[in-house]
């Protein structure tokens, strides 16, 4: 597959996610940062949300190992946002809140364009 073919495939996937995908909302919160020496607060915790469009699917039986991927986990293919989801973020999908267990980016020219996100209740 050529680079041009790969870029065309990525563009098609992004277009399909935007047009036909479900809206998902990621929520995150960071802990405050303290100076180790003085104990002074350097930065307060930050919280926020990020909206994306995604397509949820089940993992195949061969992918479920019972440890890293468990029965009931969701594989979410979603459009990339400003921040890459990390373990511990929450994801609201179909009115159900899931925990982000893993996130693998698909990148084009060094920029995240699509994420494969593993979600668990």
Summarize the SSE layout with pairings.
Blueprint: H1 3-20, E1 22-29, E2 33-34, E3 41-43, E4 47-58, E5 74-79, E6 90-93, E7 96-108, E8 111-120
Structure overview:
The chain is mostly beta strands and 121 residues long. It has one domain: Thrombin, subunit H (Beta Barrel). The chain has 1 helix and 8 strands. Strands 1-4-5-8-7-6 form a 6-stranded antiparallel barrel. A two-stranded antiparallel ribbon has the order 2-3. It is globular and about 55 Å long.
Structural class by sheet pairing and helices: mainly beta
Listing every helix as H and every strand as E from the N terminus to the C terminus, the arrangement reads HEEEEEEEE
Order the strands across the largest sheet as they lie in space: 1-4-5-8-7-6
* Ends distance: 37 Å
Shape, principal axes of CA atoms? globular
Task: Describe the sheet with the most strands.
Answer: 6 strands, antiparallel, barrel
Q: Let me know the average pLDDT.
A: 89
Count of extended strands: 8
Which descriptors apply to this entry?
mainly beta; 121 residues; six-stranded antiparallel β-barrel; Thrombin, subunit H
Gist?
This protein is mainly beta. Helix content is 15%, strand content 48%.
């Amino acid at each position: 597959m050529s680079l041009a073919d790969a870029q065309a495939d990525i563009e098609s996937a992004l277009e399909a996610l935007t047009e036909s995908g479900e809206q998902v909302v990621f929520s995150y919160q960071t802990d405050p940062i303290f100076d180790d020496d003085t104990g002074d607060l350097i930065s307060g915790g930050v919280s926020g949300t990020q909206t994306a469009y995604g397509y949820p699917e089940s993992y195949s039986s061969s992918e479920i190992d019972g440890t890293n991927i468990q029965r009931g986990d969701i594989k979410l293919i979603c459009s990339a946002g400003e921040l890459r989801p990390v373990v511990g973020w929450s994801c609201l999908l179909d009115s159900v809140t899931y925990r982000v267990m893993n996130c693998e980016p698909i990148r084009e020219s060094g920029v995240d364009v699509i994420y494969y996100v593993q979600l668990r209740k």
